[in-house]
Amino acid sequence: MANTFLLFTYLIFIAFSAISATAGNALSTLDHDNAIPSGSNFTFVCDRSRYTSLGLNMSNFAFCDSSLSYDVRAKDLVNHMTLHEKVKQLGDNAYGVPRLGLPKYEWWSEALHGVSDIGPGTFFDDLVPAATSFPTVILTTASFNESLWRNIGQVVSTEARAMYNLGRAGLTYWSPTINVVRDPRWGRTTETPGEDPFIVGTYAANYVRGLQDIEGTENYEDLNSRPLKVSSCCKHFTAYDVDDWKGVERYTFDARVTEQDMIETFLLPFEMCVKEGDASCVMCSYNRVNGIPTCADPKLLNQTIRGDWNLHGYIVSDCDSIEVMVDDQEFLSDTNEDAVAQTLKAGLDLDCGIYYTNFTQNSVRQGKAREEYIDRSLTYLYVVLMRVGFFDGSNKFESLGKDDVCNKEHIELAAQAAREGIVLLKNDNETLPLSSDKIKKLAVVGPHANATEAMIGNYAGVPCRFISPIDGFSRYANVDYKIGCDVACKNESLIFPAMKAAKSADATIIVAGIDLSIEAESLDREDLLLPGYQTQFINQVASISKGPVILVIMSAGGVDISFAKSNISNIKAILWAGYPGEEGGLAIADVVFGKYNPGGRLPVTWYEAEYVDQLPMTSMQLRPDDRLGYPGRTYKFFNGSTVYPFGYGLSYTKFKYSLTSSFPSVHFKLNRFQHCYQLRYETDAFRPPCPAVLTDHLPCDDHHFNFEVEVKNVGSRDGNEVVIVYSKPPEGIVGAYIKQVIGFKRVFVLAGSSVKFKFRLNLCKSLHLIDYNAYSVLPSGGHTIVVGDDIASFPLQISFSSVEGYY
Ligand SMILES: *[C@@H]1O[C@H](CO)[C@@H](O)[C@H](O)[C@H]1NC(C)=O
Ligand SMILES: *[C@@H]1O[C@H](CO)[C@@H](O)[C@H](O)[C@H]1NC(C)=O
Ligand SMILES: *[C@@H]1O[C@H](CO)[C@@H](O)[C@H](O)[C@H]1NC(C)=O
Ligand SMILES: *[C@@H]1O[C@H](CO)[C@@H](O)[C@H](O)[C@H]1NC(C)=O
Ligand SMILES: *[C@@H]1O[C@H](CO)[C@@H](O)[C@H](O)[C@H]1NC(C)=O
Ligand SMILES: *[C@@H]1O[C@H](CO)[C@@H](O)[C@H](O)[C@H]1NC(C)=O
Ligand SMILES: *[C@@H]1O[C@H](CO)[C@@H](O)[C@H](O)[C@H]1NC(C)=O
Ligand SMILES: *[C@@H]1O[C@H](CO)[C@@H](O)[C@H](O)[C@H]1NC(C)=O
Ligand SMILES: *[C@@H]1O[C@H](CO)[C@@H](O)[C@H](O)[C@H]1NC(C)=O
Ligand SMILES: *[C@@H]1O[C@H](CO)[C@@H](O)[C@H](O)[C@H]1NC(C)=O
């Protein structure tokens, strides 16, 4: 019986390869009714006329009965399938089941900062040649503007939906990337929202909601049937941030992570993505965590994402993760069949790759994989496809078409995002903004002066257009462009013409920095300096320049530009522009000439160059290690000097803060089930009688503190201010963070006026810490709430008493 079946599939395979090899046209016609997307006239699965044209009667298939719940329909669909049919749906390229009228579906599309054609589910051609390409995520994050993050998600999903209608894109997007930038060398910093787990999680929740949410359905009772505009996916789960550093590759890297770091840093953004963003997908990563490949770890997938966080959606592997597990990691000496059994059991629903498709049937036959797990995974997958309207259509979006891609408003939002993100790092003597009345001739030099592709980074699509820096500046002055040096800057041959240009111009803009040849997926940095002769080039141009010199840095990670920062340098102003997207040059020029007053803040610490000599990239820990001489990582644990600290950023105006709080102390009376928890202190002098209580034991949901911030613009220009709120723990607790972000808000304030707004923050979330044993605890004693860089603060006292009396 089994042999006959095998022979049968084998014959089908032969027959199909023969067709594809000899009669390509025949195959594509044959494929056509069944292919999504590819420019067909596909509407949605449960379209009665489609069934009729396939010679099928839709009434025979309960999964097309829209009066039933998605869950019942998905199960019905799965129950119609043979094992062979089921396993063919478990790869990103799902084969479909012609006899059920189920078409093919390609799950893999990407939309990290605009619809991208990286995944095979999406492509550009004459019908849709391009989509809006926003700044890369690290720059958009620097805006610290939650509504911008959401807004970009909304525009991207509108373009995605329009492209889907035209058969050019899928409905399931494997974006955003939300790994924390633990180390400044990480090559994928550009894709991520920076080094702070709370900000990363907040970005994730907003971007996911922007992509997924349909107005009015944000708070559905049954989240498993909540309609989605498109499906979004948070990746790469987890502790993934070594790409290729000195030969250590992500495929084989085993991240050794303490539970403390896991909960505090690596899991938090994903938890927020799932719980607050209600993401419908999580992607596991290539690496192992403490020996176990993430995609094969039931504790991480089934227990944490599915169980603890209650994911409404599916879990997908990174592309070829299972193959990596077998071939590169040789995990448990698994055979292909062992590996797919392991990952299915762990809770991996969909394989980006061919392993599930090729090996699951045999794995079941060999008694390894359980068919029940396959059914469960397929059900999750089809529920998501139902939620995005693949089965029943989606009235709301059917009218979207060509005019909804790369339109004026979308392009303007890309420019706006870049303006909001750009960070002013230095502005001696108020050199900026330049005045177009005074500056007639502008030298624009440097490797990125005519940047185009470099501005859109990776995971991009084809942009609507590019506005390079020279294009942008040409709108304000006569531009004399000389490249001076390319990014690698291996020799000095082109420097002289750039110096000549600087010598005769009213001002000089040097657009320098790095690009994907230095920091990228599969490419971590080894140092934090500008490549080759770039520093020398910048100094030479600056020293000879007639007018003021403005340095613009394009990069994702921090660059040690101490030489330009110091005030003995001729460089009067410095801007960081990330990778600013298709409109980047316009945004930079708008900022330099004061059409827009910058308000962005650095989402990562800019360490000094020596930092990377002090610790290997492969050490995962965030806290300093005195024994090994490792400094800490991120502003939360690194106390050394920096080129520019996390959260840094200037404005053309000045702001003053004042704070009103009415919450100086909170007291908890403990009952006999609430125990004091011991913490470790530097000395006993710091130790209060009741050091802490587990947050699980406290009525945390009921305790918030409120305060009001007034931001006054005391300068003469309208401006944008990012107010970042931190908490500092009581003194003396061993291993506590220095401070941590608990809230932020970007506000626009007219010159001479002020705005007031309230923060309402959860006490436990804001003041808790994860102790050495990975417990979440609320420490007693004097916490401090700090607004801005120590601009304003107030103390917040936490105390506990028992039924017997005060401690
Ligand atoms: C799609 O529909 C259009 C207009 O109804 C028709 O001209 C075209 O041939 C159809 N294309 C396919 C692939 O069926
Ligand atoms: C389709 O199936 C339904 C229910 O089985 C039946 O009532 C109907 O007559 C069928 N229609 C056609 C065209 O065969
Ligand atoms: C934040 O983003 C929104 C949406 O894009 C924008 O309208 C608003 O002006 C921005 N706020 C500030 C203060 O920049
Ligand atoms: C998955 O989690 C569920 C409940 O959270 C549990 O009942 C089940 O045993 C877990 N399965 C595996 C394979 O760990
Ligand atoms: C999976 O199966 C396809 C079709 O039989 C074959 O071309 C491919 O090489 C297989 N891949 C692996 C990794 O076994
Ligand atoms: C600012 O300008 C004053 C007066 O022109 C000059 O003395 C001073 O050195 C300048 N400072 C910087 C940091 O450029
Ligand atoms: C700027 O770059 C674009 C795209 O690479 C190129 O077409 C154009 O010629 C360049 N402009 C100058 C002035 O070199
Ligand atoms: C110097 O660099 C430029 C630009 O990269 C390159 O075209 C040229 O060949 C190099 N010259 C020498 C002598 O290496
Ligand atoms: C140069 O910078 C140092 C340190 O930031 C500062 O103390 C000094 O006043 C500055 N000098 C001038 C001329 O601005
Ligand atoms: C910074 O941390 C190191 C290592 O924990 C410690 O030895 C040092 O005293 C700290 N320095 C400051 C200024 O707090």
TrEMBL record:
Signal peptide region: 1-21
Domain Fibronectin type III-like: 721-791
Pfam families listed in its UniProt record: Fn3-like, Glyco_hydro_3, Glyco_hydro_3_C
Record-annotated membrane-spanning stretches: none
Entries under InterPro entries matching the protein: BXL, Fn3-like, GH, Glyco_hydro_3_C, Glyco_hydro_3_C_sf, Glyco_hydro_3_N, Glyco_hydro_3_N_sf, Ig-like_fold
Lineage top rank: taxon: Eukaryota
Keywords, sorted A to Z: Glycosidase, Hydrolase, Signal
PANTHER family named in the record: BETA-D-XYLOSIDASE 5-RELATED, SUGAR HYDROLASE-RELATED
Name of this protein: Fibronectin type III-like domain-containing protein
Species of provenance: Hevea brasiliensis (Para rubber tree)
Higher taxonomy: Eukaryota, Viridiplantae, Streptophyta, Embryophyta, Tracheophyta
